[in-house]
């Protein structure tokens, strides 16, 4: 077999088909017809001399040969992309842009993202990143529609998307209680779960952790009774949350490192709260990211290792 007989475009078609396990869906993503994709795969099978896919009523899966070939095909495409990436960096003509987003959590939007962008700019001034903060629901929709490459969020209910997204835990943060300065608990330096049982909470969009908090508050009772958790007003960003707390509308669960908008608010560690809030990097599972996205995600891991571990 001569290398000249391998069509790089067909190699890319093969990778996309393998990731989607469906010729029709892969062809749609590639903006080609299903017959064009089938002919490309058939050509690769003729070139390699082995079957690469097993076709079963529209669904396809890799053969053992196909699984091995996928590894080499993917690495080949990545190597070429890396070469183009380096050449364009040398010539300062890089055109691709990485699109990222995050939810409104203080620890992500106010703490992590600005520092991460500065870190990436220092590491590679040619890396083009477009950041847009969005509501969680819109952010996930845009990720699935491939308008975004990478997003950052806490647990928004991953079970509903586990076949569509892949998540990578970056770090976990301790949670604390935010109370107005005039609140009786503000005289303390820390609180216990038992002391929070009768408080009225302002909810945030971080529903999964709020459910866990409720469970722990209920178990905190010495008498083992179940206490109702009083909640009012659901908000989606920490600035609104802090304004509500400052004006004595209620108390809130926040990151222990929250500093924005804390004038008139006391942040109290909850000493026996066993849960932490996880922060994730999220990508679309079946999407084939560009080499630039791979470079960016590697910078994210390096940044987290240096700043959060």
From TrEMBL:
PROSITE patterns: HTH_LYSR
Coiled-coil region: none
Keywords: DNA-binding, Transcription, Transcription regulation
Stored Pfam families: HTH_1, LysR_substrate
A GO cellular-component term linked to this record: protein-DNA complex
InterPro entries on file: LysR_HTH_N (IPR000847), LysR_subst-bd (IPR005119), WH-like_DNA-bd_sf (IPR036388), WH_DNA-bd_sf (IPR036390)
UniProt keyword Transcription present: yes
Gene Ontology MF terms in the entry: DNA binding; DNA-binding transcription factor activity
Keyword Cell cycle tagged: no
Source organism, top-level taxon: Bacteria
Family of the protein in this entry: Belongs to the LysR transcriptional regulatory family.
Name of protein: LysR family transcriptional regulator
Origin species: Aerococcus urinae
């Amino acid at each position: 077999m001569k290398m000249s007989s391998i069509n790089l475009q067909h190699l890319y078609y093969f990778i996309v088909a393998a990731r989607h396990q469906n010729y029709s869906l892969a062809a749609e993503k590639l903006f080609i017809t299903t017959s064009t994709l089938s002919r490309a795969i058939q050509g690769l099978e003729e070139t390699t001399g082995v079957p690469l896919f097993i076709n079963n009523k529209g669904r396809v899966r890799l053969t053992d040969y196909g699984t091995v070939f996928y590894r080499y095909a993917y690495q080949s495409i990545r190597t070429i992309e890396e070469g183009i990436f380096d050449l364009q960096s040398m010539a300062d003509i890089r055109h691709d842009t990485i699109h990222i987003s995050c939810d409104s959590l203080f620890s992500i939007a106010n703490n992590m993202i600005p520092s991460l962008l500065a870190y990436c700019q220092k590491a590679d001034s040619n890396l083009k990143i477009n950041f847009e903060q969005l509501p969680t629901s819109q952010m996930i929709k845009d990720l699935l529609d491939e308008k975004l490459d990478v997003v950052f969020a806490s647990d928004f209910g991953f079970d509903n998307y586990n076949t569509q997204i892949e998540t990578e835990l970056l770090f976990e943060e301790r949670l604390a209680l935010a109370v107005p300065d005039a609140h009786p608990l503000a005289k303390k330096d820390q609180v216990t779960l038992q002391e929070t049982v009768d408080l009225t909470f302002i909810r945030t969009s971080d529903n999964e952790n709020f459910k866990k908090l409720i469970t722990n508050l209920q178990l905190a009772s010495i008498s083992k009774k179940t206490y109702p958790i009083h909640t009012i007003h659901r908000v989606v960003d920490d600035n609104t949350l802090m304004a509500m707390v400052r004006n004595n509308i209620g108390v809130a669960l926040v990151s222990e490192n929250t500093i924005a908008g804390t004038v008139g608010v006391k942040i109290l560690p909850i000493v026996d709260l066993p849960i932490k809030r996880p922060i994730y990097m999220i990508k679309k599972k079946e999407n084939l990211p560009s080499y630039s996205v791979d470079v960016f995600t590697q910078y994210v891991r390096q940044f987290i290792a240096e700043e959060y571990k």
